[in-house]
Amino acid sequence: MFDIAQGVSNAQMIELGKKSVRNFYYLNLTNKIMNRQNIPQSNTFIQSSKYIWITIIAVALTAIIVSSGVYVWQRSSWRVTEQSLQQQINNLQNQIKNFPKPMQSTIDIPKETQRTIRLTNETAKWKTYSSSKYGFKFKYPPDYIITSISTEDKIILARLESGHWLLSISVESNPANLTLSEIVTREIADTAKIQNITIDGKAAIRYSITNFGDYGNVGAIVISGNNIIRIYGDGSSSTNKRYFELLLSTFRFSS
């Protein structure tokens, strides 16, 4: 904004100087013409006019020189200021580049904890069944129903009321106080694949069989108090097997 104002001022001063020179030239020309025509003039007037125009021209030239000097000095000062600001910007950019990056904290989450979190997320929108009689609860898929033939001792889950069962939970008393290994010996075929697991902190076994039988394709057995709880699943598809595993992960005992 100052550059424009300064530029206009210089232009005006230069134009004033040009006008002064032209007027001085016209005055001399007028004097010569009058002298040739023998027109009488006052020497005092002529000398006074000359001094006035010389003064005006001197003032105009001085203003032009002074203004030009001020303009050059300001431009030089601005250039120095601009270079200083650019240097500060460069220094700040270098400081940002060299600024140490914050250390990323790494937390080693145990695999079992990761598995629990994953299973919890998968079953977050599942429905919940609770048994006050036997003191347990579990979650089951939202598109499954508890069929009307279910009882407190045997819960049957299916997609349709008259459809094939997919999950089943049965409860039976254990008056003989059988152990898990004794139950396996009595009930599970030798060809079954057996795995020791825990269900809500209680020792349990998980098994799977290759041929369809009375206990389904997959199953789990856990002892709670004086009761034997058997969980069966139809393992004929990967989805059913997955739902069986998820149901086991949500099984909880209240006592």
If you had to describe this structure to a student in words, what would you say it looks like?
Helix 1 packs antiparallel against helix 2. The strands form two sheets. Strands 3-4-5-9-8-7-6 form a seven-stranded antiparallel beta sheet, covered by helices on one side. Strands 1-2-10 form a three-stranded antiparallel beta sheet. 49% of the residues lie in helices and 21% in strands. The chain has helices at residues 2-36, 43-98, 111-122, 180-187, 238-250, and strands at 127-131, 136-140, 145-146, 154-158, 167-173, 193-199, 202-208, 218-224, 227-233, 252-253. It starts with a helix and ends with a strand. It is rod-shaped. It has 255 residues and is α+β, with helices and mostly antiparallel strands. The protein contains five helices and ten strands.
Q: What is this structure's SSE topology?
A:
Elements: H1 2-36, H2 43-98, H3 111-122, E1 127-131, E2 136-140, E3 145-146, E4 154-158, E5 167-173, H4 180-187, E6 193-199, E7 202-208, E8 218-224, E9 227-233, H5 238-250, E10 252-253
Antiparallel strand pairs: 1-2, 2-10, 3-4, 4-5, 5-9, 6-7, 7-8, 8-9
Helix pairs in contact: 1-2
Main sheet specs: 7 strands, antiparallel
Rg, alpha carbons: 52 Å
**Mean pLDDT level:** 78
End-to-end distance, in Å?
84 Å
- Structure class: alpha+beta
Strand order of the largest sheet: 3-4-5-9-8-7-6
Query: What is the helix/strand order?
Result: HHHEEEEEHEEEEHE
Tally the helices: what do you get? 5
Shape: rod-shaped
Q: What is the helix content?
A: 40-55%
Low-confidence stretches: 1-8
The percent range for strand residues is 15-25%
E-strand count: 10
